[in-house]
Design a protein that fits this description.
The structure holds two protein chains of two kinds. By secondary structure, chain A is an alpha/beta fold. Chain A is about 35% helix and about 25% strand. In chain A, the strands form two sheets. Chain A has a six-stranded mixed β-sheet. Chain A has a four-stranded antiparallel β-sheet with strand order 2-1-4-5, covered by helices on one side. Chain B is α+β, with helices and mostly antiparallel strands. Chain B folds into two domains: about 190 residues, no CATH class; about 170 residues, no CATH class. In chain B, the strands form four sheets. Chain B has a six-stranded mixed β-sheet with strand order 14-5-2-15-1-16. Chain B has a five-stranded mixed β-sheet with strand order 4-3-10-13-9. A three-stranded antiparallel β-sheet of chain B has the order 6-8-7, with no helix packed on it. The relative contact order of chain B is 0.19. Classes of the chains: A alpha/beta, B alpha+beta.
Amino acid sequence: MVCIDGLTKLYGEGPARRAALDNVSLSIDAGELLAVLGPSGSGKSTLLGIVGGLDRDYQGRVTVFGEDLRALGDRALSRLRGDRIGFVFQAFHLLPHLTVLDNVLAPALFTANDPALRPRALALLERLGLAERALDTPARLSGGQRQRVAIARALLRRPALLLCDEPTGNLDAETGARTIDLFRELHREGGLTIVAVTHEERLAAAATRTLHLRDGRFT
Amino acid sequence: MRIASLWQLVRRDLGRTRGALVTSGFGIAAGTAALIFFLALGLGVRAVLLGEVFPIDQVELEPPKGRDPGILGLLLGGDVAPGIPDAAVARLGRVPGVTGVYPKLRFAFPSSARGGKEIFGYDVGTSELVGDGIDPALVRGETFKEAFADPLDHAGAPCRDDATCGHDQYCERPADRDAGVCSDPVPALVSRYLVEIFDKSIAPAHNLPPVGESLVARAQGVTFTLRLGESLLGRAKSGSPRTVRVRVVGVSRRAIDLGITLPLAVVRRWDREFAGDAADRYSSAIVQVGEPDASSAVLAEGAALGLTPTDTRARDVSVLIAGVTGLLTLIAAVILLVSASNIAYTFRVLVTERRAEIALYRAVGATAGDVRAWMLALAAVVGVVGGAAGLLVARLAALAADVAAARKLPDFPFKPASFFLFPWWLGALGLGFAALFAVVGAFGPARRAAKVEPAAALQGS
């Protein structure tokens, strides 16, 4: 599903230039729940951004669903992201001016008109225990609830690949544990491929494979 | 992106960024208001001046003025006055863009008039009256109380004098003939210009009532006598002076400015009676054009025939109005430019504030084009709403200006009820310009928004 070959990502200019990812190679099969662990600044989020097609300024070759990401035009890459990849961020990135339901429906703005998306959004909220908060704004939700809204948004278009960047990073231990259970459930039920970068050992314990990243290299 | 989605994004932005967008829209509204106000003023003034005072859809050509005969020439008799032959009229009619050529024949004899008792209570007179004859086809489509045609088209019974004719008729009989025919009064047209001059200058000076726009109704039946071949300045060289009856039937912009206009056939007949050969050559010709641009070709053809335009004021006024309107429009354009830069600033700030939101939309499937379209659509809506407000302000300002003009400005000839003209396309133009300037202002920020790096923005760097 994902094939990374000789991936290098450099930041900075001149003497300050450093490698966030240094000649990394990796293959991820469909149905995996992969946890990439590493300390802050190890290049985890950078890796996720590149795999998700959010960052194309790199060296090496990255193919996702058989598509060389750098060879894709903006429209094709955007379609790939919208149709087949879901993102969950540490900071949730919910839109404060929208209701919970509208946040979940945000990806629907950029697809062909699909009347099934709204019932699916409501069903996802129901499943994640947020049905009664559908018309609230994110400001009225707890951290765990916000993360579940972000997960619902990521799942709206039935992606084959879910990329999670420190999904429990902003949650307390109990809420984080529940979120990890949710990922495990999603992986088990739907065969969803999940790549989660984290420094949370509990999430690693739930993964089918764990990789450690340090200074831009797998160890 | 679907239009419905685009509108959804824009609608949400209008709600949450109301303050900044209203400020931007205010500039657009001010610029649009100024633009539309000045353009409407230019159009309104142009319509009055070029439609009624100096019509631009017609060119009147005349032959060159006669040479100065000198003392000897006066004593011995000068050259025959130049005129326009039928062949020249036909040639003018073949110029592309010409919709009609209507020759005119001036009175080639002295005349004077007396009448007006029906309006003023007593007769007033003029010791010298000028007049001309026009083809009735020239005023076809205009509505008069009576037909504007040669009364001898339906001549009455033979007569020797007015007493033998019916009520209101007169005996149309050249003095050298024994018998004539009973005729209705000759229909006459006067110009609006003459009416204005009378109302604004002559009537107040002589304590007479103004006739104004209701002249046609009030002058219905007003008949005056016209003395042919004789005036204060002298007598015609041929024919014997006689008196005929004339009736004002209407006001027309085709009528001579200061004088009366009669059917061409009548004037030709009288010119033959009192001036001989002068009746065979026209004193001028009105050339009507479909488009004002065609008048250049008419002038060129006229020059080739040795004819010159009687009045170049229409062209001069047109240039003057265009110049002044252009200057004022330039001022409005500067206001719009300033407001466009204000829009640019607002949208730059907006894009900076919304980097994460833009990045999120990119992450969930938005293309760079979608983001650009979103920003430009928002700007266009701000522009259109600002433009609509500007249009409203322009209309209200025009209304206020008209009310002030009606109250404060003294009456003058052709003072219009409104100095402004708001054709439908002016509104569309205002909205279009408002949207255009707003979009131009937002173009740079929209490009910047489309270039937001999603990964960096979502990581907060």
